[in-house]
Design a protein that fits this description.
With 215 residues, the chain is mainly α. It has 8 helices and no strands. The N terminus is likely disordered.
C-alpha cells in the first residue's frame, strides 16, 4: 500500500499516464495553493468555445442592432465579460447569450439618449443597412400588391422591427431567428416565461399593423 505522501502513477482515463495530473496537483499543494478543479474549463476550452460560438452570436446581435460593426463590437465585449467568469459559469451558452442581449439593449438605450439630444438632426447612416434576411420567412401575411417582392417585405418588416420596444424586438428575434424555446428566451431576457409570450404577442400585433397599413 502506498504511503500518504507517495505519488501514485498509472494509466489515466484516456489510457495514458496519470503522472502529469498528479504532478500538477502535488505541485499546487506544495506551493500552498489548491488542487486544480478537474471540472474547471481551461483556457484552451474557452478558445474553442469562442470559435464555435462567435459567428452565431454576431448574427444574433446584428439582427438586434442592425449594424454589422456594432454587432461585432458588442459580441467582443460579451466575450470579454465571459472570459472573466470562465471558471465560474457552468452553462456558458445561455450566459453568453444573455450578455449579448443585454449589451444590445444598452446600445439601444445609448442611441435613444443620443437621439433625444440631437432630435433636430437625422440619424447618421453607417451604410450597412438593416439585416433583413431573417424576416423573409417569419410567416406574416403578404404585403398587398408588393407581395411578389420578398425583399421589399423583408425591408418593411425590418423597419417595423427596429421601431419596436427593445424587449419585444428581442423576444421576436430570439423566438423566430434564434429558434429558442420560451424558457431559454426568458433566461436571455431575465424575465418570466409567461412574459415572453406576452412580449411576442404584442410585437407580432404591431408588425401585422405595419403590414396592413402598407397594404
Amino acid at each position: 500500500m502506498a504511503g500518504r505522501g507517495a505519488v501514485v502513477t498509472g494509466p489515466g482515463l484516456d489510457g495514458g499516464s496519470a503522472d502529469a495530473s498528479v504532478t500538477e496537483t502535488t505541485g499546487a499543494l506544495a506551493r500552498g495553493g489548491q488542487a486544480p478543479d478537474p471540472e474547471t474549463p481551461s483556457p484552451l476550452a474557452f478558445d474553442r468555445f469562442y470559435e464555435s460560438s462567435y459567428p452565431a452570436m454576431v448574427r444574433l446581435a446584428r439582427v438586434l442592432v442592425d449594424s454589422p460593426q456594432t454587432a461585432e463590437d458588442l459580441v467582443q465585449d460579451a466575450f470579454v465579460r465571459m472570459h472573466g467568469r470562465w471558471g465560474v459559469v457552468r452553462d456558458p451558452v445561455p450566459y453568453l447569450r444573455r450578455c449579448v442581449v443585454n449589451a444590445c439593449r444598452s446600445h439601444h438605450r445609448r442611441q435613444g439618449r443620443e437621439r433625444r439630444h440631437t432630435a433636430a438632426r437625422p440619424p447618421a447612416d453607417d451604410g450597412s443597412g438593416a439585416d433583413t434576411s431573417a424576416w423573409e420567412g417569419i410567416g406574416l401575411p403578404p404585403v398587398g400588391a408588393r407581395s411578389e417582392a420578398r425583399t421589399d417585405d423583408a425591408e418593411l418588416l425590418a423597419g417595423a422591427l427596429s421601431a419596436l420596444p427593445y424587449r419585444q424586438r428581442a423576444a421576436v428575434v430570439l423566438r423566430y431567428y434564434a429558434d429558442l424555446p420560451d424558457a431559454q428566451i426568458a433566461v436571455a431576457l431575465g424575465c418570466r416565461v409567461g412574459t415572453v409570450a406576452s412580449l411576442v404577442h404584442r410585437a407580432l400585433e404591431r408588425l401585422r399593423e405595419v403590414v396592413r397599413d402598407d397594404g
